[in-house]
């Protein structure tokens, strides 16, 4: 009963399109109060004093809470505990919350919030990461590790890069920069805390990692983890953005709920979400890359600086991925790469779809086109010369021999699907008659699947079969809106040979299943789906060992297909009969499965080792015109080809491609968080320009499948690879249209530029 590789409706499709799905803000509990946050008026200050008397006396107010009311831990973080749930003594950015106002109604809480008063000694903000890293810069977080504004330092050391560059026929010396990017999920953060009579506090919220939320709430309340039970509600988008801030929102609701002993809801509006939530890291990238006259990349000398903003979040992990992929999908004889992240008084930065790769790809893929032009090669030729192939070693020394390295085939498929070879000679390059300048460009990449050497990587799943043949499925990878639940159900259906209609996905709480890690890093299918497949195989083994004799065969002969359990030349049970037989044997048809990612090793000092256990190979192309009169860029077509290992649900794979590409178009052409002196000037989506449907042309998505032997299902992933390539493809197309090379994002062209 094969279902993988087909298209089926998502298990949550009907509830969402009919409006019946209950998001966090839709939930109501008896006696529920409402909380709102109060933000500081400063960007940087110390000696904070907060006066809540007037707000506390406001009609309908039940309580106003500050850092002094927190019984346990005040500061949190995925790596460093530096993000204050409520500001205590020091203000580090305009998104710092100084108080929580709780009232009978949201309106009453909003009316009281302006009555909270603060006083502090204002200090000049440090908003330039280069200034923050200077030896004489003020330390923004005294007492931090090393008492420095430098959060981390990543590196790659392979050979003598400077010596190799000296011997190259061509050396390019170029700088690039990328911007703050807002996640712009449809649903802002929200959390509800509900105290139970047994002492447990239930948390309901929109989050990517319920177990982080549980840890935050437990530490903040000073209570055991077992006293905190977290339930994920349907999520209106995350893209990496609902980890730290989402957990803190739930923790604030939990503080108020414990203090008042009643349910409390805290729902953000868009301006709060944009002010406080973390963004994509802005990067400054300086590349010196050397080629021989045949076009071979010989050496690279690279410096990067990323702006972490006020807090650490997952900056070291983001920067680590940039380290591992700093030369793109290319081999080189020698590489010296350093990346440093700085603390500033800007909004803080953290996980966002792509996670350190889009910034690097923007530079590397333009450099390849630039080098090709100077060496008299085509963009295709120079990539073919330098790309990783089967058995090659990456710049970190990882030998790619445990899976199909399909990058060349993927690129060739892109060239064919986009008609790149036929269209490339027609590029205007700033010349020609008429208003419209035409260009086409492409880019390629490889992306390490899942977490890799940056963290512990595992996931688990539970399968619980009922006597009537229905099946409950749980997994520790959580639905973010991407369709993970449906994919896991399809995997289980195929493994057991039963129809999808038998399976119900039971969204677990943190008390039901072990922590399987956060839903990030394109790990939903490879890790969550892998755990489901292993649990299903454990279940089949249990059933086969229990029923084989009754079926008239050996356990190794038992077959699960077409909604039956059978032995060839023996008996056959329907699935319902098999489940009843299991119960008659007093064996419960239940299984637990865990997928632990294959071991990888990494040398932090040298930036050498096996960064990931497998890779996704990708190529994307953009075709566009640029108006001489207005500078407006009009996208004509976008093409994407990705080797994802194995497609479980083809429609959802294509949906991930389309969504990722749409976000990449925003990164390339329109999105820019207007941060000036630490303050965000466009705190709503009417001023922050994300692409609309009419801004996007036809998008062609092509799936390439080479099942991965390290994945239990053969699948790898598509969520992040879909986003990380289109910005450089557009930049290359813009150059081929105008003859202008853009080193900074977003790309904006004026008529004066084209004169």
TrEMBL record:
Coiled coil: none annotated. Residues 18-124 form the Aldehyde oxidase/xanthine dehydrogenase a/b hammerhead domain. Pfam families: Ald_Xan_dh_C, MoCoBD_1, MoCoBD_2. One of its GO terms (molecular function) is oxidoreductase activity. InterPro entries: Ald_Oxase/Xan_DH_a/b (IPR000674), Ald_Oxase/Xan_DH_a/b_sf (IPR036856), Ald_Oxase/xanthine_DH-like (IPR016208), AldOxase/xan_DH_MoCoBD1 (IPR008274), AldOxase/xan_DH_MoCoBD2 (IPR046867), AldOxase/xan_DH_Mopterin-bd_sf (IPR037165). It comes from the Bacteria. Its cofactor is Mo-molybdopterin cytosine dinucleotide. This is Aldehyde oxidase and xanthine dehydrogenase molybdopterin binding protein.
